[in-house]
Amino acid sequence: MALPLTSDQPDRSAPPAAREVARTFVVSRLGSLFALLPLGVWTANHLWNNLAAYNGAQAWQTAVTGHSSAASTALTMTVVLVPLLWHTVWGIVRMFRTRGSSARYFGSLRYWLQRASAVGLLAFLGAHLWLAWAQPRFFEGHAEVFADIAHEMRFYTPTLLVYILGILAIAYHLANGVWSFFTMGWGIAVSKSAIRWLERVAILVFLIMLAIGWGAVYGLYSRAT
Ligand code: HEM
Fold first, then answer.
1. Is 176 in the pocket of ligand 1 (CB under 6 A)?
2. Cβ distance 80 to 39 under 8 Å?
3. Dist. CA 154 → ligand 1 center (Å)
């Protein structure tokens, strides 16, 4: 039986204060939004740029590592790393909090694959950001060199395997993420037909990301010297 409220007990049936709503939006909704924009779009573009490997070292270097100024380098870092960090923290919190209840709505295989790919991505992105970005740029004083990454891809099998699996994880995580963003995340697609239609979009996103990403890996592999 519910006890009557006394003056010092908060009334939990009252609508949450505007500040609380704003806080929930910033912490939770931005973690979801950032995953798609700018992170998802930037990731797709980054994989696409890597296809320049087919046009040789100079073209790859310009497309992937070239920045017109220090300001554009800083801007890229902010636009990519801040949302990535935000989304990663948001994702880790959700992994611990949403077990069970989300699975009921998500379809458990996809639910678990989304989380497994997130863990794979965390490991892959940690290694990739360190070896291909931070170490060459900040410790060796230059951007990643085409000949180095292509050589690793061709002659060091663990690197090739990590990139193949990392891209598989990105393709799945982003494609399924697009589906969950528009359906459960933001409730933009609610009707059965819209949800089914989005499933087809997600499959298409998965295949396109996989083709571009693995295509880029093969481009580097085949141009190694
Ligand atoms: C390239 C990097 C990444 C991209 C592009 C990306 C993209 C996305 C997208 C679009 C969603 C759907 C958001 C929604 O449903 O509202 C999502 C969900 C998720 N992401 Fe990521 N993500 C990335 C990295 C990570 C990392 C590193 C982690 C943490 C280890 C992570 C953990 C999660 C989790 C747990 C979900 C599911 C949340 C839920 O539905 O409850 N993601 N991601």
1. no
2. yes
3. 30
Nearest 5 degrees, angle CA 111-CA 122-CA 118? 10
What fold, for 29-222? 3 helical TM bundles of succinate and fumarate reductases (1.20.1300)
Q: Where are the domains of the chain?
A: 29-222
Please tell me the distance from the alpha carbon of residue 116 to that of residue 29, in angstroms, as a whole number: 22
Q: 53 near 220, Cβ under 8 Å?
A: yes
CA of 118 from ligand 1 middle (Å) equals 6
Can you list the alpha helix ranges (DSSP code H) found in the chain? 18-24, 30-34, 41-50, 57-60, 70-97, 101-106, 108-128, 146-155, 157-180, 192-222
Q: In ligand 1, which atom is closest to the CA atom of 40?
A: 5
Alpha carbons 65 and 75: distance in angstroms, whole number: 14
The count of other CB atoms within 10 Å of the CB of residue 65 is: 19
Q: What is the pLDDT of residue 23?
A: 81
pLDDT band at 1 (very low <50, low <70, confident <90, very high): very low
Task: Choose the weakest-confidence range: 105-109, 163-167, 202-206, 217-221.
Answer: 105-109
